[in-house]
Specification:
This is LTD domain-containing protein. The protein is mainly beta. 3% of the residues lie in helices and 39% in strands. The N terminus is likely disordered.
């Protein structure tokens, strides 16, 4: 996974004539792992088809992370916002486009039409303050993207 490898130092600063390494900006513990943007079959808007479109987030940390207020958004601005939700360490959660019953591993956006463009789009993971925690883009080919 590309984001699990974080350099120990991003820059070198001079402090009193001594070189001091400054830590790299830490990558978010929760990251976009995969986006399945082209659900199987034809896009006719059935709930089954809508739920075949999803974003998988993965907690790279060993500790649980609160996702309250965290958002998943596309380029257009369609936004899913987590309510009170905690993702356990080293676990995934899938955010499906359609309707369903939320659980510890599957969340449902409740939309009645598709979010992710099959011809190219970007999924953004945003902290509750709006800052980008992670993003994943794809083009015209394939049906899913590992980020």
């Amino acid at each position: 996974m590309r984001k699990l490898l974080v350099a120990g130092a991003a820059a070198v600063a001079v402090a009193g004539g001594v070189l001091v390494a400054t830590p790299a900006e830490a990558a978010s513990a929760v990251q976009i792992y995969r986006v399945y943007y082209d659900s199987p079959g034809s896009d006719k808007g059935s709930n089954t088809s809508l739920n075949g479109e999803w974003v998988q987030l993965f907690n790279t940390s060993r500790t649980s992370k609160s996702l309250k207020g965290v958002k998943v958004r596309d380029k257009t601005g369609y936004t899913y916002t987590f309510g009170s939700f905690t993702l356990k360490g080293r676990k995934s959660v899938y955010i499906h486009t359609g309707r369903g019953s939320n659980s510890a591993t599957h969340r449902y956006w409740g939309r009645k039409w598709y979010v992710w463009n099959n011809t190219g789009d970007t999924a953004y993971l945003l902290y509750s303050n709006g800052r980008v925690a992670d993003k994943c883009s794809w083009g015209r080919t394939g049906s899913s993207k590992y980020c």
